[in-house]
Amino acid sequence: MSWLGVAVLELLLALWPLFALIVGGYLLRRQAFPNEAFWPGAERLNYFVLFPALLLSSLASAPLDNPALPRLALAVLLGLALAWLALLLLRRLRGWPAGRFGAFTQGMLRFNTYLGLAAVSSLFGQPGLTLAALMLALLVPTVNVLSVWSLTAERGVSARSLLLPILKNPLILACLAGAVLNLSGLGLPGGSERLLGLLAAASLPLGLLCVGAALKPEQLRGEVAALSWNSLLRLLGMPLLAWAVAYGLRLPALESTLLVLFFALPTAPTAYVLTRQLGGDSQLMAGLITLQTLLAAASLPLLLLLLGN
Length: 309
Fold this sequence. Notes:
The chain is an all-alpha fold. The chain has one domain (3-308): Na+/H+ antiporter like fold (Up-down Bundle). It has 12 helices and no strands. The chain has helices at 3-30, 38-60, 69-94, 98-109, 113-151, 159-167, 170-184, 192-213, 224-249, 253-263, 270-277, 282-308. The mean pLDDT is 86.
């Protein structure tokens, strides 16, 4: 077998279990197993307990003195800023109302954290997870602020209503707690590292099952053009932008790959909840989540294979 065939096989072996879990979650929910009430509860458990445990444990032991981190932080923020400016220009040209603009913004900027960290864990192990947690400490609050603002742009939004959901976000709180434990020198004493490790181990598989359970293929029947261009920009345009930023800043190979990977992820299922809460176009948002997740099964392996070359 050629080296290219070996690379493709290794990549597929690392990624197919992740998409198998997503498909499994979709099939389980369609069969109403265990029951309809299980999935919202499972998603809340993961979002408020298990997933924060993963981020906290990763950041508590992360090498925060890594000289590459300032450049990685600059790359993350620069990539988001360029994408945000492009979205503002498109809104001005197309005249989208806030509800529609908010859905397009989340389709472009938000990302499926569960799928991203599961892919990083499979491909790069703990070193990759540590860097990914550091990236999330910047990505999560920035993307949340832009998402809330885009959905409420026409109504106006106070600083309190914009920042309060960010400050209460369990992922952001976990990142802050991990950084404090790290910088204070306390770390994770007294067996707490083992406890958080057990919680973290349950987070990614449950998260991927919940991603599958949230898919709504029936929402793909309308808005074909809008769903298509937004998904192509998210899954191909955004990683190309990330690659250009990483190349321009001369990021090391692992950091470049992680940046492109997170910019290539499909949008987050939680975007649907935020869109409904703030009066956005929830039907469009559900379609974007579903189409992007389905297309990512092909686009992610392709992009990672190209990066490996």
